[in-house]
Design a protein that fits this description.
Number of strands: 0
Radius of gyration: 16 Å
Shape: elongated
Strand content: under 5%
Structural class: mainly alpha
Order of helices and strands: HHH
Amino acid sequence: MLPPLRSDIDEATRLMLSFAERTGLVSGRAGRRYLWTDAFAVCNFLGLARATGEARYRELALQLIEACTRPWVAIGTMTTDTRVGSAA
């Protein structure tokens, strides 16, 4: 497989940084999370990290994973949780 063209990487970078801004990942905006688009974005950020060698894209992927999982972790620790047993 041929490596991606620099113009393709530049376009992907532009699109993904715009996504990060629009969805509140790197801005102060309150972002809404959508599982499918966020999962795709994680893959894109990791691909950019690999293609460019820039760690900031890996960090954005990790931030996005954190943003997506934070609400679920909070739900599991709420005092109103009536489930019994443990996940261990």
